[in-house]
């Protein structure tokens, strides 16, 4: 079992930055791939970024490539999403998810999900 708690969301002006954190409880966190997804009002949830359990592989949605960076600190049981050059269209609730299988995280999201954190980017 893995429990995930997101933090770091907030209100920021366009062009600004935020760093989201996904803190995990449970042992063997390094065995889990972790992803970030987001859902804007009246839109479907979409994949944003993912990182493998080893941390050696990452993947990003085209809409955030070059602006967002996912990383992990297994000593702290935390995965981060550094978001730079934010745009109003990045406004959404951001969720982290985890699964032993990296492909599952990338394609569907993992079996474990956090409660989400709101990111609002003003123009």
Can you describe this structure?
With 123 residues, the protein is mainly β. Helix content is 5%, strand content 50%. The chain has one helix and eleven strands, in the order E-E-E-E-E-E-E-E-E-H-E-E. The chain has one helix at residues 102-107; strands at 3-7, 10-13, 18-25, 33-39, 46-51, 58-60, 68-73, 78-83, 92-99, 112-113, 117-122. Strands 2, 4, 5, 6, 9, 10 and 11 form a seven-stranded mixed β-sheet that branches. Strand 4 and strand 5 (46-51) form a beta hairpin. The relative contact order is 0.31. The model has no long low-confidence stretch (mean pLDDT 96).
Basic shape:
globular
- First-to-last CA distance: 40 Å
Give the overall average pLDDT: 96
Indicate the proportion of strand residues.
over 45%
Largest sheet: 7 strands, mixed
Number of helices: 1
H and E string: EEEEEEEEEHEE
Low-confidence stretches: none
The whole-angstrom Rg is 13 Å
Helical fraction equals under 10%
Q: Structural class of the secondary structure composition? A: mainly beta
Tally of strands? 11
Secondary-structure topology with pairs:
Layout (H helix, E strand, L loop, with lengths): L2 E5 L2 E4 L4 E8 L7 E7 L6 E6 L6 E3 L7 E6 L4 E6 L8 E8 L2 H6 L4 E2 L3 E6 L1
Parallel strand pairs: 2-11
Antiparallel strand pairs: 1-3, 3-8, 4-5, 4-9, 5-6, 7-8, 9-10, 9-11
List keywords for this structure.
mainly beta, 4-stranded antiparallel sheet, 7-stranded mixed sheet, 123 residues
Summarize the structure.
With 123 residues, this protein is mostly beta strands. 5% of the residues lie in helices and 50% in strands. The model has no long low-confidence stretch (mean pLDDT 96).
């Amino acid at each position: 079992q893995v429990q995930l708690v997101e933090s770091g969301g907030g209100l920021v002006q366009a062009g600004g930055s935020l760093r989201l954190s996904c803190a995990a409880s449970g042992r063997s966190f390094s065995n889990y791939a972790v992803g970030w997804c987001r859902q804007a009002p009246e839109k479907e949830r979409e994949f944003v970024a993912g990182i493998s359990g080893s941390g050696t592989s990452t993947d990003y949605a085209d809409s955030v490539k070059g602006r967002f960076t996912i990383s992990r600190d297994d000593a702290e049981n935390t995965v981060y999403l550094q978001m730079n050059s934010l745009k109003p269209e990045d406004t959404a609730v951001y969720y982290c998810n985890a699964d032993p299988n990296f492909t599952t995280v990338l394609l569907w999201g993992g079996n474990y999900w956090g409660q989400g954190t709101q990111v609002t980017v003003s123009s």
